[in-house]
Amino acid sequence: MAKYYFPAIFDPGADGSEGFTVTFPDLPGCITEGSDMADALHMAKDALAGFLFGMEEDNEEIPSPSNPDNSKLPPGAFVSIIEIWTDYVREEIENKAIKKTLTIPKWLNDAAEKESINFSQLLQYAIKERLGIVSKQ
């Protein structure tokens, strides 16, 4: 399983609001924000998971995480280690349902509905059979 730990900088900014901007020093461009601590932590995990999943999909080299003690922090900011598993992201994406529009003759639709045929299930079964796929559910 692809499990990663990266330091994230939580910066409350200078406007006095409860929100945080979250950046990852080792991953330029991986940035998010949250309206409060819980939201910022959730968004940090989501941003890191998506960013690293994209890097894996593009066969990019994922850098080693830096030592959080070496992070340069703005006033009021702090570092937290964020843990993610890209395998869970991949599984979620691969199993996401995709809506397809299809066309069949009315008489066939009527007959299938009369027999309570689940069109989506039948189409999945037929495609798997045609492709010789037996293991994926």
Comma- or semicolon-separated keywords:
four-stranded antiparallel β-sheet, Type II toxin-antitoxin system HicB family antitoxin, 38% helix, HicB-like, 137 residues, alpha+beta, TTHA1013/TTHA0281-like, 2 domains, Double Stranded RNA Binding Domain, single chain
Describe the structure in your own words.
The chain has 137 residues and is an alpha+beta fold. It has 2 domains: 3-94, Double Stranded RNA Binding Domain; 97-137, no CATH class. 38% of the residues lie in helices and 18% in strands. It contains 4 helices and 4 strands. The chain has helices at residues 37-57, 86-94, 106-114, 119-131, and strands at residues 3-11, 20-23, 31-34, 78-85. The chain has a 4-stranded antiparallel sheet. A hairpin with a 7-residue loop joins strand 2 (20-23) and strand 3 (31-34). Helix 1 packs across helix 2. It is elongated, with a radius of gyration of 23 Å. The chain starts with a strand and ends in a 6-residue tail after the last helix. The model has no long low-confidence stretch (mean pLDDT 91).
Tell me, briefly, the overall form: elongated
Binned strand content: 15-25%
- The appropriate CATH architecture of the largest domain is 2-Layer Sandwich
Give me the count of strands: 4
Count of separate structural domains = 2
Cα(first) to Cα(last) distance is 20 Å
Trace the largest sheet across and list its strands.
Answer: 3-2-1-4
